[in-house]
Amino acid sequence: MTAIAVTIAGSDSSGGAGIQADLKTFSALGVYGASVIAALTAQNTRGVTGIHDVPADFITAQIDAVFSDLAVDAVKIGMLSQPKAILAVAAGLDRYKAKNIVLDPVMVATSGDKLLAPEAVETLRRELIPRALVVTPNLPEAAALLETAVAQTEAQMQEQAEHILALGAHAVLIKGGHGSGAESVDLLVTRKGMTRLAAKRINTKRTHGTGCTLSSAIAAGLAKGLDLPAAVQAAKAYVTAAIAAADKLDIGSGNGPVHHFHAQW
After folding, report:
1. All structural domains of the chain
2. What is the pLDDT of residues 84-122, one digit of tens each?
3. Cys-Cys crosslink for 175: which of 81, 138, 140, 264, Cβ 3.0 to 4.6 Å?
4. First and final CA of the chain: distance in angstroms?
5. Per annotation, catalytic residue among 7, 41, 60, 207
6. Is residue 210 flagged as an active site residue?
7. What are the tens digits of pLDDT across the range 207-235?
8. Catalytic site residue 213?
């Protein structure tokens, strides 16, 4: 059977993040990708200049079209900027008994532009976190979800992940890419314990779409039948290699994208 993953997220007109990054990741990892577009952004490597939200009823129509026909093995959820969009997605996930849900709580772009309306944060916490197999916040996103300060140490990261678990998530991968030090450390925290995933920190400004790419790589692994720890390990290795190869690309004048097809090109 062909492994199929669906991304429910926003579109990035410059191609480095969002729906475009997710579909590239699925393809690079041998998974067929489908999409539900929840928002359009006018965006490039320097920033976001506009957001056009897709009406909730049309998000529902896309979900129905995809899930009623395709045998979906995993779902990646990214940018959902409005409460009505979040509610439409939650209802759709329940309607089709979606499995292997990876929630990337996208709140701020790499450029610093806000992508999530303040009133949508509580809806995200209430409606999507309990439905997710794994939630993948970076340090600022974890802090925003918990309305607290950004974690500065691994102990604080683990504590914040455990608080997100308490919101109903089955697992939390808290990402340390925004941290400092020689290593970029992510922590996979479940009710059974914690796994530390470390990689050498790469000195590059071409990091546009890293969060989208990691979460979609996890979804790809789950779609292919990997368990969560193995999917996370494989995704971490893929993203680290994509960042390491990013300077081979000459895309844009700001925070350029990672190299999704580093193994193929």
Report:
1. 4-248 (3.40.1190.20)
2. 999 999 999 999 999 999 999 987 666 656 667 778 889
3. 138
4. 27
5. 207
6. yes
7. 999 999 999 999 999 999 999 999 999 99
8. no
